[in-house]
Design brief:
The chain has 430 residues and is mostly helical. The chain has helices at 6-11, 17-30, 42-63, 66-72, 79-82, 84-107, 109-120, 123-129, 133-162, 167-196, 204-219, 225-232, 243-250, 252-273, 275-281, 286-313, 316-334, 340-367, 371-403, 405-426. The two termini are 40 Å apart.
């Protein structure tokens, strides 16, 4: 007789009926006092939303000013060198996402969340006292690990709490909190830098955010493994035989979502690294760049308060198709823009497009997987999605150095449009 556990049934889709019955009985005993739903778990959910805001703030810390620090403090001019911090961030976050998903059922979501915040604490100090660009790259290695552990854990825990009915709303609130925070902190660091200098004052925000995130996770957050056990009792969705490959590509629905996630973060990596350089080349000052750069994640974040709930109602394929298409079109029009308000408008459109797809990605992955495999499937999706940061930074850096910034933006825009067409013609309707 096999040892029946969440982990073992996750790995083996061929359990005998008797073993499945034994597993269900065990679940019912363990989770008998657990209730799913946003209303029943609103306190814990709200605390996790706050923690997600702290997570997003850690990314916003760098979003406006790090390219300027590269050029002004370290005299880096080659775009591939400047974008190395995004490459290492994307790779470390992507790999951490995968292991977070794989480990979530074994050691607990909360433990991974706490570990992520412990890793975050030294990051702002490294950025403040960095004596070479290598220290900046190392800080972003830690930031990627922090984001992979904290954001992935928080996402899975919210999905666990709310059950199926309000999953889109939950993801909308989660991503809104995170990306509104990215936008707010990106604006604040730009404003602080323009008034008080690039270093050290903007990074004091990071010290506050990391300590708050750690304290909230240790003292207020509870694990949600019993909630996923509860949901798995009556779920009849088939188990994936190979979670990694089916989520990556062979399952037409999961694979389409994963490629779109990669391309979405590929263009976001380009916007993160190349956009401030493009704006600086058009003679915008740091405060203007901070405003423009912050509009995109702010609209992205606020928009998800609406699009998250829409993902529970509207066809997921259509939301992802139109979202990716809007992103591609807005990037193309940026090539013809020179005025401040033109960039504000296009950043807003880009944010709307991303708001349409971002919560829908996660809702889609959750909808097409069994609850006992959900954390691992989300981990695989987030592996590919966040590798987009690294791939985007490398591609845009190489193209920008060889041909110019405009060519790199055009290339990424075309890839984004192609990604939208894959969704439209490969995924099932709905």
């Amino acid at each position: 007789m096999k040892s029946i556990s969440l982990g073992s049934i996750n790995r083996d889709p061929d359990f005998l009926p008797k073993e499945r019955e034994e597993f269900s009985i065990k679940i019912k005993i363990v989770a008998k006092d657990v209730t799913l739903g946003l209303r029943s778990n609103w306190r814990q959910f709200f605390l996790l939303v706050i923690v997600t805001a702290f997570v997003g703030g850690m990314v916003g810390l760098e979003r406006t000013i790090l390219p300027q620090i590269a050029e002004e403090k370290f005299n880096l001019q080659v775009k591939t060198a400047i974008l190395s911090f995004i490459v290492i961030f994307g790779i470390s976050k992507a790999i951490t996402n995968y292991f977070t998903g794989a480990l979530a059922n074994r050691i607990g979501r909360r433990n991974l969340l706490i570990l992520g915040w412990i890793i975050a604490v030294p990051i702002p100090f490294i950025l403040i006292y960095a004596s070479s660009w290598a220290f900046i790259v190392f800080a972003n290695l830690l930031l990627g690990i922090n984001q992979g552990l904290t954001w992935s854990s928080a996402v899975v825990m919210k999905i666990d709490l709310v059950g199926e009915k309000n999953r889109g709303l939950a993801m909308g609130l989660n991503e809104a909190a995170g990306y509104i925070s990215v936008g707010v902190v990106a604006f604040l660091t730009g404003w602080i830098a323009s008034n008080y200098g690039l270093i050290p004052y903007p990074f004091y925000l990071g010290i506050i955010l990391s300590l708050l995130g750690l304290c909230f996770s240790v003292f207020f957050i509870r694990d949600t493994r019993h909630h996923v056990l509860k949901e798995s009792v009556d779920n009849s969705k088939r188990l994936l035989k190979n979670i990694f490959w089916e989520t990556t590509w062979t399952n037409k629905n999961l694979g389409s979502i994963s490629q779109a996630g990669l391309v979405n973060n590929l263009n976001d990596g380009m916007v993160w690294g190349i956009f401030p350089i493009l704006l600086a080349s058009l003679n915008f000052d740091l405060e203007q760049i901070g405003i423009i750069v912050s509009v995109y994640p702010a609209v992205w974040g606020i928009g998800q308060l609406v699009t998250g709930k829409l993902a529970d109602i509207l066809p997921k394929r259509e939301m992802m198709f139109w979202g990716m298409l809007l992103q591609g079109i807005s990037l193309i029009f940026m090539l013809f823009s020179v005025e401040f308000y033109q960039f504000i408008l296009l950043s807003s459109v880009l944010g709307i497009g991303t708001a349409l797809v971002y919560p829908t990605f996660l809702v889609g992955i959750a909808a097409y997987t069994n609850p006992v495999q959900r954390a691992e499937s989300i981990g695989v999706f987030r592996l590919w999605r966040d590798l987009g940061y690294a791939i985007g930074a490398i591609l845009t850096g190489i193209i920008a150095d060889a041909f110019g910034i405009s060519y790199s933006i055009f290339f990424i825009a075309v890839l984004t449009v192609i990604s939208s067409l894959i969704i439209r013609f490969r995924m099932d309707p709905g």
